[in-house]
Amino acid sequence: MLNIFLQGATPGRGDGFTSIFRHLGALGLFSLAIVDSSPLPTFGGPDILTAILAASHRNPWYEYAAVATAGSVIGAYLTFRLARKAGSAYLHSKFGHRKLDAFLNFFHKWGTSALAVSTAVPIPMPTSMLFAAAGASDYGVGRFLTVVIICRSVRYTFIAIVADHYGRHFVRVLRHPSQYWGWLLLFAAVIFSLIMAGILLNRRLTAANIG
Fold first, then answer.
1. Alpha carbons 12 and 104: distance in angstroms, whole number
2. Rounded distance between C-alpha atoms, residue 202 and residue 183, angstroms
3. CA 63, 179, 196, 79 torsion: positive or negative?
4. 28, 41 in Cβ contact below 8 A?
5. Taking the chain, what is the end-to-end CA distance rounded to the nearest angstrom?
6. What pLDDT sits at residue 201?
7. Which of 84, 80, 66, 78 shows the shortest CA–CA distance to 29?
8. Contact 23, 14 (CB under 8 A)
9. Which of 40, 59, 67, 204 is most deeply buried (CB count within 10 A of its CB)?
């Protein structure tokens, strides 16, 4: 699936299902971002497509960042609402007891931290499962949307800006991440540190207000 997408992203190769999203431009990116936040895997499709479109300079980079963020937030909210409405019993029947219990326990332990990191950093993690875990728990809708909106906007804005400036070089990094794992690890560490600092600051402010 990923190879088909990458082939579709290569100039002159317009065949394949995933190439349709690229030719649809912002609309294709919006649709792919919605799917990416559902249980259906896209293997980093919105990240790669955002970079490709921003590097093409057909439209300003911020349009693609906004479209990707909007689609991702809508998809995340749909997954969240479905899980909340269906309940944990339905999710157990679909995902299996062990797998879902592991994600629920992980989410209950880390909560906002896990949600923020998984939505902000392009790491190989089934983020849609965390969306479902948040919906199946008593996690607030307002907090959920706030975290997803902020972290997804930071993620896609960063990708769009860098792709706009460095074009094909940055697209190559996304297409062959194993060759640049050091820089990607550094980026993940910086984003993680910023997120954790924000969470700790918010907790201190909340504790101070309560006190």
1. 45
2. 29
3. positive
4. no
5. 53
6. 58
7. 66
8. yes
9. 67
Residues of the chain below pLDDT 50: 1-18
Tokens standing for residue 91: 């999710």
Enter the pTM of the model.
0.70
Neighbours of 149 (CB within 10 A): 17
Token pair listed for 18: 């995933």
Cα dihedral across residues 196, 198, 202, 208: positive or negative: positive
Task: Determine the pLDDT at residue 14.
Answer: 35
Give the residue carrying structure tokens 């790491």. 123
Q: Which two tokens stand for residue 153?
A: 């906007």
Question: Collapsing DSSP states into helix, strand and coil, what is residue 20?
Answer: helix
The per-residue pLDDT for range 179-203, each reduced to its tens digit, is 556 666 666 676 666 666 666 655 6
Q: Is 59 left (phi over 0), alpha (psi -120 to 50) or beta?
A: beta
Structure tokens given for 125 = 């993690």
- Structure tokens, 180: 């640049």
CB 1 within 8 A of CB 43: yes
Q: Which amino acid, one-letter code, is at 203?
A: R
DSSP 59: S
Amino acid at 202: N
Arithmetic mean of pLDDT over the chain: 76
